[in-house]
Design brief:
Elements lengths: L1 E6 L7 H11 L3 E5 L10 H6 L3 E5 L7 E5 L5 E5 L12 E6 L2 E7 L9 H20 L6 E6 L23 H12 L3 E2 H5 L8 E2 L5 H4 L2 E2 L2 E5 L1 H4 L2 E6 L15 E5 L3
Parallel strand pairs: 1-2, 7-8
Antiparallel strand pairs: 1-14, 2-4, 3-4, 5-6, 6-7, 8-12, 9-12, 10-11, 13-14
Helix pairs in contact: 3-4
Organism: Urbifossiella limnaea
EC number: 3.1.11.2
Keywords: Hydrolase, Magnesium, Manganese, Metal-binding
Length: 258
Amino acid sequence: MKIATYNVNSVNARLPVLLRWLAETRPDVACLQELKAVQEKFPTEAIREAGYHAIWHGQKAWNGVAILARAGEPAETGRGLPGDPDDFHSRYLEGTVGGVGVGCLYLPNGNPAPGPKFDYKLRWMDRFAARAAELVASPDPVVLAGDYNVIPEELDVYDPAGWEADALFRPETCEAYRRLLAQGWTDALRHLNPGERVFTFWDYTAGAWRRNAGLRIDHLLLNPAAAGRLVAAGVDRHVRGWEKTSDHAPTWVELRDV
């Protein structure tokens, strides 16, 4: 089973890119973030014509997440994170596909930091960690895939010193991510590419793509049951070079069938 995550940066504006990527790579599951579309504006028909069933949690502006699956409609098991009744952001969706649990997330950016947005980011990470702690021991494979807006270590950023003050790379953010991994999760892309500089995001400005001034902020975390089936992980880097594309590249894992 191939499971991918892709921050599409507006599902309708980037729909031709999304459909081209789906047709080219045919992931079994695709987790999408930053839909920037209210619930009724999700491109259901186009996704269905591409061969995918979908569940989604839409919202105007910068949020929105979806889970796409080729083999039948995903069974939704959760929408949003508990712990903050005032948080109406569409940032988390959970379902099962073919016996695999899938959590699709769009973690808050948190800038400027310090400040209220950074405080919200850290609280969100705490709430996410609480849910992850419930999922990690599942006897079934679970994959938590999405745009984490976390740069885990210096290897994951083109200019570590220049990003020290950014919410994506502040010590509090990295420590929260390490605590998450310590529950027993495997960062699949890093696990299979130890010591290698692998990026998943390149900003639109300052020639970042041309200079390979990138970040690794899109992650797929696997519980032990899923990690035991991990055979491959990678980034569809070339998609970032397409016309009118997202500033993220699709990132994926392959799990061995049992």
